[in-house]
Amino acid sequence: MSIKIGIVGATGYTGVELLRLLAHHPEAEIISVTSRNEAEIKLSEYFPSLRGQYDDLVFQHPEQACLKDCDVVFFATPNGIAMQEAPPLLAQGVKVIDLSADYRIKDVSLWQQWYPFTHSSPEWVAEAVYGLCELNRRTIANAQLVANPGCYPTCVSLPLIPLLQKQCLIDNQPVIADCKSGVSGAGRKASSSNLYAECSDNFKAYGISGHRHLPEIRQTLNHLHPQMGNNLVFVPHLTPLIRGMHATIYVQLKNGYNPAELIDEYYCDSQVVDVMPVGSTPETRSVRGANLCRISVQPAPENNTWIILSVIDNLVKGAAGQAVQNMNIMYGLDESCGLTFVPLLP
Ligand SMILES: NC(=O)C1=CN([C@@H]2O[C@H](COP(=O)(O)OP(=O)(O)OC[C@H]3O[C@@H](n4cnc5c(N)ncnc54)[C@H](OP(=O)(O)O)[C@@H]3O)[C@@H](O)[C@H]2O)C=CC1
Ligand SMILES: CC(=O)N[C@@H](CCC(=O)OP(=O)(O)O)C(=O)O
Known about the structure:
Layout: E1 3-8, H1 13-22, E2 28-34, H2 43-46, E3 59-60, E4 72-75, H3 82-91, E5 95-98, H4 108-114, H5 122-127, E6 129-130, H6 133-140, E7 145-147, H7 151-165, E8 175-181, H8 196-199, E9 204-205, H9 213-224, E10 232-238, E11 245-252, H10 259-266, E12 273-275, E13 293-302, E14 305-312, H11 316-330
Parallel strand pairs: 1-2, 1-4, 2-3, 4-5, 5-7, 6-7, 8-10, 12-13
Antiparallel strand pairs: 8-11, 9-10, 11-14, 13-14
Helix pairs in contact: 1-11, 6-11, 7-9, 7-10
The chain binds NADPH dihydro-nicotinamide-adenine-dinucleotide phosphate and ligand 2.
């Protein structure tokens, strides 16, 4: 099988990460990559890291790109683009995996409260499958449009799925997700808050009064255990890392439940989610460059409060890696096909 692939927004961080991951994917053939600013430039000239991989590929302006000839198109674009550009492709039978947030939230009016747009293709929101692979792989397999989850929602939701499915969290008690992201999470576009002098040697919380990933995480949690998402307290922080995301999650469990056992049981066959021994401390560098989420549960619950740690690489399991995992599921391939990279150390 050769899957003809297009990437819209291939000069951005998640776009170039898709190119890195797909370079040695046995079934992938990239036929179109777009950029408005770098149109007509050779890919391997723009990204020396890709010299020798895609030497004949040239960035095309999105308006000139032959995206309708693709089997699947990845949108690695800012929010608000796929909702306009994906529907004509979908109408021609092309599959779409959208890395942005355009199709993630089923309640369009809620989405419009958090994103500064009027949704231009709400009919496709209803069709889209939320691409959290470990939760929705059966529906992803038959999807034409996959809404690839956000990075924080992936890091926070994965350890909580087994607990919510068992309905073992105590009602009306907060679920606290204290999260940290590397700077590449903000994308490659120029912005003064992402300057080296602003981000390095610095650490800060942001989006405390409400981050747009809050309704996305709540949607997943509420779907599994009604109302539980509404108990979520989510505070993101920016850390002076390039890649990496860390969530420290505090949950209150009903008596008799052990989260370590439940999480271990749910992910025992997973190649992507690694449940580490109780008490270990997963590090962001242990997943750097790899399509992995490592989770551990801390012992010694206080008043039924347990601490769960979860780490991902925001650009891989938090974006491009999960997008390729979704493509693999959509094409009936092994989920980890082309994704078995060992993390980079140091
Ligand atoms: N960075 C991360 O860790 C994560 C990102 N995401 C999401 O993935 C998407 C991409 O993020 P990221 O790669 O970081 O973003 P970047 O800012 O790094 O890249 C954006 C890309 O989109 C292109 N682009 C911008 N505007 C348009 C437009 N109007 N039409 C077509 N192409 C456009 C840009 O190229 P050009 O301007 O030349 O066209 C560029 O290639 C975003 O929606 C983001 O929220 C999701 C999870 C994690
Ligand atoms: C560090 C940093 O700025 N991170 C980004 C994560 C954005 C992202 O990837 O989310 P969407 O795909 O939902 O836009 C932020 O907090 O906005």
